[in-house]
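[recover] target loaded
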């Protein structure tokens, strides 16, 4: 694999700031695919100063936001739009986000990405938790919705283009004095001409003291993959509603209706089945006709918990569903710790995870993925709980 380009877009050792680039296959010797990479900075309103890196591998195109924790704003693959229409129309500079607004729900004021990370030290519902102060004494603090990482700008960004793939790397620090010191190193990789991308994330405790770590990938879809008759499929041992409101929809937990003004969100907590050995699992969102889909592949060793979020509200209010692989369920951190699902990274310890997302554009491809899920499902008898399960949900 020959490297055609490798250059920093943002270098912590430089005072130049974010660099704009315009790279394409026509200027690369030996490259015969119609790929391109463009970077730029948004201006005006709440998007002022947000850096964007647009990657087009010749088939799949997506926009990464270094200013927002290396989240992925939106994408397209053929005629399939990837992402959703949020009431938040533009990427919001974290400088304009107050995470403590509305009782800890301020994260939602910047929520419009296709793929957004939640973590690194905490994620899930807002709530009170106990931490240590600078003197080692316990005290209570409010944790906000889904943590900090989505609103932390990257400290370094690098692009590499080879004759086979485009690779974007970024480094994001969630650190403080007398508190968590966690670093995210991400590699977003896509092969030229492919309909898939792989996100390889390494989280490191760069401090000396043990630190708790939570991570959830909020992968969000609206039309055309989401619509009346769409379905989410995954092999599972059990699924339970998060709360009484979600229990109201348990008979159609994996199916979707059209936009409904006034719809109140529902969420379902899964224990998925994985292949023996690798423990690789799958989750598929397909449209009503089964002609288009988005497919997630990952290992349960990386993400043992999965949540399906449904918000089929009116279009103007955010008609969206979320497929959410995670280290634990998105309850309050205190609840998840009590259930033994919050991991700890020792000083200097790292943890690397892989997540692949593929767009399927034909019925044949969708049917093949569904057949693979059905085969995996044969290894476990699925149980659907009609009411919330105490072990899984704090509601």
């Amino acid at each position: 694999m020959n490297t055609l380009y490798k250059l920093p877009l943002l270098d912590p050792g430089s005072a130049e700031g974010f660099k704009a680039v315009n790279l394409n296959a026509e200027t690369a010797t030996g490259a015969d695919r119609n790929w391109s990479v463009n970077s730029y900075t948004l201006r005006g309103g709440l998007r002022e100063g947000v850096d964007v890196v647009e990657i087009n591998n010749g088939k799949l195109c997506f926009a990464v936001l270094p200013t927002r924790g290396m989240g992925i704003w939106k994408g397209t693959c053929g005629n399939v739009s990837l992402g959703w229409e949020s009431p938040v129309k533009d990427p919001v500079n974290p400088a304009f986000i107050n995470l403590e607004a509305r009782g800890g729900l301020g994260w939602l004021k910047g929520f419009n990405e296709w793929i957004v990370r939640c973590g690194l030290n905490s994620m899930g519902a807002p709530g009170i938790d106990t931490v240590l102060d600078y003197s080692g004494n316990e005290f209570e603090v409010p944790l906000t919705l889904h943590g900090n990482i989505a609103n932390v700008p990257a400290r370094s960004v690098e692009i590499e283009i080879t004759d086979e793939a485009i690779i974007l790397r970024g480094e994001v620090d969630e650190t403080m004095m007398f508190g968590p010191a966690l670093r995210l190193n991400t590699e977003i990789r896509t092969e030229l001409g492919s309909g898939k991308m792989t996100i390889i994330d390494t989280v490191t405790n760069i401090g000396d003291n043990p630190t708790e770590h939570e991570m959830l990938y909020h992968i969000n879809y609206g039309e055309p993959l989401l619509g009346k008759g769409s379905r989410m499929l995954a092999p599972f041992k059990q699924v339970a509603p998060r709360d009484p409101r979600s229990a109201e929809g348990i008979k159609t937990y994996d199916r979707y209706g059209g936009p409904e003004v006034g719809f109140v969100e529902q969420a379902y907590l899964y224990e998925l089945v994985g292949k023996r050995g690798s423990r690789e699992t799958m989750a598929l969102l397909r449209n009503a006709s089964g002609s288009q889909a988005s497919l997630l592949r990952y290992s349960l060793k990386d993400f043992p918990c999965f949540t399906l979020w449904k918000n089929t509200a009116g279009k103007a209010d955010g008609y969206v569903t979320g497929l959410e692989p995670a280290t634990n369920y998105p309850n309050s951190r205190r609840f998840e710790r009590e259930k033994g699902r919050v991991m700890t990274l020792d000083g200097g310890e790292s943890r690397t995870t892989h997540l692949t997302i593929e767009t399927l554009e034909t019925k044949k491809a969708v049917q093949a993925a569904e057949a693979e899920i059905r085969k995996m499902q044969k290894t476990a008898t699925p149980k659907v709980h009609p009411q919330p399960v105490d072990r899984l949900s704090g509601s």
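[recover] notes: The chain has one domain: 3-384.
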